[in-house]
Amino acid sequence: MPIRHFRQTALLVLLVLGGCSDSPDPWVSLPDPPLTQGRLHAVTIAGDSARAQAQARGAGYAPLTFPPNYPAAQRVEASLWDVPEPVVGKAMLFKSPGKGPDLRVLEMPLAAQGMEANSTSQEHFYRNVLGTDVPAWPAGIERSPSLRVKVWTFFVPSVVEASKRLRENGIAVIFDAVSLTTPYLGDHRTMAIRAPDGTIVQLVESRAQ
Questions:
Q1: What is the pLDDT of residue 6?
Q2: In the chain, what are the domain boundaries?
């Protein structure tokens, strides 16, 4: 093979390999991290939930009973969590048996699974955006292909300040900040972003926190 042809071929291979490599982690070099300080308050799991509800009771989670949600708030939460309104209306809430997050269970058929994300990207996102560790699967609930985490809900000091810093650093806000009243959280402000694996991360500013 002529040397010139060999060099051109080698360059092409390097370009292809470079194009297939992972893009730089956008969360590793955020200025002055974390962008906000999050405290995990609740995890929302979705799917075939009957067994999960039984396991939650067996693990010491206490069912929470509230008056019916306000219709307007239900519509907002359905849009925020990307689920049908009737699913929100039938959500089951459980109080954590210890210091862990509360549990919300949504009964719904699962669509496509979440995106793949390497553990390093997840760690950088939660550490540098929210100042916390990667949340763990809820204790006492068996992992299953028919269940997945739909939403992590974090309390933050200020939704407005969080929104400002997120946007300044190029992090997409998938649900703009709104004021909301629900039986569970009372009066609060909320917004949402996505973790690297596609899970919705709901940020809440509430007097209840």
A1: 37
A2: 27-206
